[in-house]
Each structure stands twice: as structure tokens, then as C-alpha cells.
Specification:
The chain has helices spanning 2-25, 30-54, 57-73, 77-85, 87-91, 153-168, 174-182, and strands at residues 132-137, 141-146, 149-152. By secondary structure, it is mainly α. The termini are far apart.
Amino acid sequence: MRFQQAIRSLQAWLSAAEFERTRLLADEPWQTDATFLVYSLRNLLRSGELAARSAPDAAVRDIRRQIDKFKASVPSLVDLRDVLEHFDDYLEMKGNLQHPPGTPKGQRKSDAAIDRWAGKRRRRAPPGSFSFWAARQNDDDLLVGAGELELRVDQAIEAASKMAAAILAHGPNRLIAERLARRSAPAAFRTRGGEGPG
């Protein structure tokens, strides 16, 4: 029963992410849709993790492998969701990524904030800045991000569809899984407002 609920949740969050991707193509304010896209993808990952915890034993290894593939294709997703959800902590220089891992929230001081990206690559944003942005790179690759974090939208949707299809193949909705598996990569995006890679 819980596995079936996880599958329904997985389908709902994939639909939400695809809907937000479609809205990013329309002439709507990009910040709202990009934010909900990130939340949808994060909840899709949570649904996949719930499916792995509740799946029949024979399916668990494959589901975990699919989750790992998804995570590898969207390495900034969890941190990006954290920045968007806890924007107030980041504005006060008390966010998770601004302090050594494991620092309790009550012990984070703004004057002790660190810069994890110092010297690693050309900066997108000033140190400590986690402003939300959207941009197009190489004429067809839409990115959304905050500060130095980025999420490649088409790649994320394609990886989400593949993960969902693989997980659904272990459930009662095999026809939906087959349809998802046949999908092609999403169409390229137009540039939407905001700042981003230059």
C-alpha cells in the first residue's frame, strides 16, 4: 500500500515539474515557476526514496540505482531547495552552505560564514550571495540557480522522467512507465529574466 502511495506521489510530482517547465516557456514571471520546479523535483526525489523504502525486496536495488542516477544528474538539487526554502537564513549568512557541515543552526554566526566556492571556478555571484537566477547557456540550455548552485532544467526533467519510468516499472502502472521511457529529451528553452552565468 505505501509503495503504491509512493508511486502516485512520484507521478504527481513529475507532472508538477513538467508543468513548471512548460510555464517557464510561457511569458510568465520565471521566479515563481522556477521555484516550484525545484520544489517539484525535490519532492519527486523524496517520492522515489519512499518508493525504495517501501518497494518489494526484488525491486529495491534497481530503484536505489535509479535514484542514484537521478541524484548524479542533478547534484545541486537538494542544496538549491535548501537555499530557496531557507532564504532568510542565507540572507543573514546563517545558511547550511555558509558554515561547516554539521554546525547546529543556533551556533551559526554571520561573521563566521565560509565561502565553499572560493578559488574553485569563475564566480557567478559575490561571495555569500544566493540570489535566485535563470539563464540560457549555449543558446539552448536553460539553467536556474542561486548563487553558485545551478540546475540544468532539460537535463533534470529528462533524468526525472527516466527515474520515474524505472520505478513505475516495478508497480502496477507499467503502461505509464513504458510511455515515460519512450519520451524524448525536452525541447530547448528560451532565456528567461534574471542573472546567471555569463
